[in-house]
């Protein structure tokens, strides 16, 4: 028994556990490269996490002291009690804000740990190898916590989604950043009022997190969340250096690296640059399209569910281009029914998924998967675009900006240059829409005025169900 | 371990991160973001390691919060990712090889 304890608590055993843990993270994440291995990959990563936690609890002294085990248990229980129901009950449409929230608490944990680490060394000898990463973690963790909370608020529509800008915003941000860095340097150089400075840093970083995210428009929010995700990873890696913990360094850095790539991919898909997003606002662009929309684009043709049903039933190939509007109307299941009904009639149905359909890359895939749409019917933009000329009818459901031909042929448009689904190249287009209001980016869509386009107004779910029953009765 | 060893590990981990992620198809970006998000909850270990050194109610309280935050991050992240991934299904009535080709980038 005693021998067993000695073995389990030996530094080598614990390091070995950490190595197993991060190997499982890497192996698990590489499983995420394909839908078939992804579920297993995620579970493998979770097992790695469990091993890392258990190994840490076995480390000598970690559970020493009468109250320590209870306090640790308390924290774990609270975390499980809050985390599990939140993750189980969240609607798939609300995934982006949920991720923001989970990211935020991670950043908060980093900031608190850095703060405690600092308090322990007040007055004592503090080595730079602990000091520099802790200060980095304190600043970045705090920015990430507050920034993520603002992002959550915006996506949840607790805060207005439009950019909120103060005069001299970039000056204020610059000043706050300077305060953080200068305080950090003062601390690292050694000062007598450490407590004051570390709280000053956390506070300035908190303000900075708020100020950086508030001016960013709702459409750019997923990119910001991804960026903050990468930040939290980096700050976790910094904490790992301060605590000399391999598992933290590896896991944090992998997240930092992958988050950076993902952020770039998302920004690219939206034809935006990360610096431009962080500098703030689609806001300035809203005035321009109003003027463009004022010019007469000709009449809009409205149609009925019955006409649409006939058109779809006699088509060879139908492409469905879904957008976030479909998810908001909870029309996924109705769309799945329609797809089945059409397949029974021998019509080929494919789904065209724009990289930023939904609210973040891949979000639409999740929403359709929730409605049991098989993922082999989903086509990515580059794959489906050459198929539009061969498509008889394209059904646009709750999507707007991602189908807007202005992105291709109107250099004045704010979305000019954004890659789009070339739905206007198909035989005819049917747009399901609540009204003639413009999309998330606030831009008029010439597609609606195209002679090939017919509009079916109304609630997307109702419209799709109507079309389905018409198709079935034909 | 020396600082240099730690930094070496850091740099290598960065390359692993770049390498693993650049291969993920667009379809899985949302689960990926949520999965990696769960992994940085590993900062929980920091809270566990520091608890026995803590003094006073402020530090204990803060560390309980940090551990709770880290746990929410980990558990919530993995559970939500699992839910999402569990929804990805292939066409049930068409199990032939035709579905194989478009998955790989």
Brief characterization of the structure:
With 474 residues, chain A is an alpha/beta fold. Helix content of chain A is 61%, strand content 7%.
Counting DSSP H or I runs of 4 or more residues, the number of helices of chain A is 19
As residue ranges, the low-confidence spans of chain A are 282-295
Which structural class fits the helix and strand makeup of chain B?
mainly alpha
Element-by-element helix/strand order of chain A = HHHHHHHHHHHHHEHHEHEHEHEEH
Range of strand content of chain B: under 5%
Supply the number of structural domains of chain A. 2
Q: Quote the average pLDDT of chain A.
A: 84
Strand order of the largest sheet of chain A: 3-2-1-4-5-6
In which range does the helix fraction of chain A lie?
A: 55-70%
Terminal-residue CA separation of chain A: 77 Å
Q: How many β-strand runs of chain B? A: 0
- Tell me which oligomeric state these chains represent: heterodimer
Order of helices and strands of chain B: HHHH
DSSP helix count of chain B? 4
| Helix proportion range of chain B | 55-70%
The end-to-end span of chain B amounts to 40 Å
Sheet of most strands of chain B: none
Question: What does the main sheet of chain A amount to?
Answer: 6 strands, parallel
Large-scale geometry of chain A: elongated
What does this structure look like?
The complex is a heterodimer of chains A (474) and B (105). Chain A is of the alpha/beta class. Chain A contains 19 helices and 6 strands. Chain A has 2 domains: 96-280, no CATH class; 298-473, TPP-binding domain (Rossmann fold). In chain A, 61% of the residues lie in helices and 7% in strands. Chain A has a 6-stranded parallel sheet with strand order 3-2-1-4-5-6. In chain A, helix 6 runs parallel beside helix 8. Mean pLDDT of chain B is 82; it is low at 93-105. In chain B, helix 3 (44-51) packs antiparallel against helix 4. Chain B has helices spanning 3-21, 29-39, 44-51, 56-86.
């Amino acid at each position: 028994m005693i021998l067993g304890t000695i073995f389990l608590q030996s530094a080598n055993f614990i390091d070995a556990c950490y190595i197993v843990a991060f190997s499982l993270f890497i192996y698990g994440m590489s499983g995420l490269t394909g839908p078939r291995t992804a579920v297993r990959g995620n579970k493998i990563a979770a097992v790695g996490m469990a091993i890392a936690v258990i190994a840490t609890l076995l480390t000598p002294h970690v559970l020493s002291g009468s109250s320590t085990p209870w306090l640790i248990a308390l924290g774990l229980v609270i975390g499980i009690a809050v985390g599990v129901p939140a993750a189980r009950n969240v609607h798939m449409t609300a995934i982006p804000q949920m991720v923001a929230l989970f990211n935020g608490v991670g950043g908060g944990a980093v900031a608190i740990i850095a703060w405690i680490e600092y308090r322990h060394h007040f007055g004592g000898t503090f080595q730079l190898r602990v000091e520099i990463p802790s200060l980095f973690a304190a600043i970045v963790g705090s920015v990430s916590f507050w920034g993520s909370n603002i992002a959550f608020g915006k996506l949840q529509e607790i805060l207005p989604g439009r950019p909120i800008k103060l005069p001299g915003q970039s000056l204020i941000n610059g000043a706050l950043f300077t305060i953080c860095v200068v305080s950090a340097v003062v601390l690292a150089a050694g000062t007598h009022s450490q407590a004051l400075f570390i709280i000053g840093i956390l506070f300035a970083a908190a303000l900075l997190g708020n100020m950086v995210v508030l001016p960013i428009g709702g459409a750019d929010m997923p990119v910001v969340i991804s960026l903050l995700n990468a930040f939290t990873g980096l700050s976790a890696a910094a904490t790992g250096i301060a605590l000399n913990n391999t598992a933290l360094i590896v896991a944090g850095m992998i997240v930092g690296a992958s988050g950076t790539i993902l952020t770039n991919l998302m920004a690219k898909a939206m034809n935006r640059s990360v610096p431009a997003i962080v500098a703030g606002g689609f806001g300035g662009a809203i005035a321009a399209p109003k003027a463009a929309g004022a010019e007469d684009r000709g009449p809009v043709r409205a149609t009925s569910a019955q006409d649409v049903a006939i058109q779809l039933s006699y088509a060879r190939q139908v492409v469905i281009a879904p957008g976030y509007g479909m998810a908001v109307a909870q029309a996924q299941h109705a769309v799945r029914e329609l797809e089945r009904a059409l397949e029974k009639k021998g019509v080929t149905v494919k789904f065209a998924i724009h990289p930023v359909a939904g609210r973040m890359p891949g979000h639409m895939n999740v929403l359709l998967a929730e409605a049991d749409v098989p993922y082999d019917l989903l086509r990515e933009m580059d794959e489906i675009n050459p198929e539009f000329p061969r498509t008889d009818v394209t059904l646009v459901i709750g999507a707007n900006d991602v189908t807007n031909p202005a992105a291709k042929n109107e250099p004045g448009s704010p979305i000019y240059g954004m890659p789009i689904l070339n739905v206007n190249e198909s035989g005819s287009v049917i747009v399901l829409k609540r009204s003639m209001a413009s999309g998330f980016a606030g831009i008029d869509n010439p597609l609606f005025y195209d002679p090939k386009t017919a509009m079916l107004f109304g609630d997307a779910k109702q419209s799709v169900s109507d079309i389905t029953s018409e198709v079935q009765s034909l | 371990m020396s600082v240099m060893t730690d930094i070496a590990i850091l740099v290598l981990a960065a390359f692993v991160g770049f390498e693993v992620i650049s291969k993920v198809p667009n379809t899985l970006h949302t689960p990926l973001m949520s999965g990696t998000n769960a992994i940085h909850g590993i900062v929980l270990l920091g809270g566990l390691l520091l608890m026995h050194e803590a003094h006073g109610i402020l530090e204990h309280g803060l560390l309980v919060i940090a551990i709770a935050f880290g746990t929410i991050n980990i558990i919530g992240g993995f559970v939500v990712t699992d839910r999402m991934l569990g929804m990805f299904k292939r066409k049930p009535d068409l199990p032939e090889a035709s579905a194989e080709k478009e998955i790989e980038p």
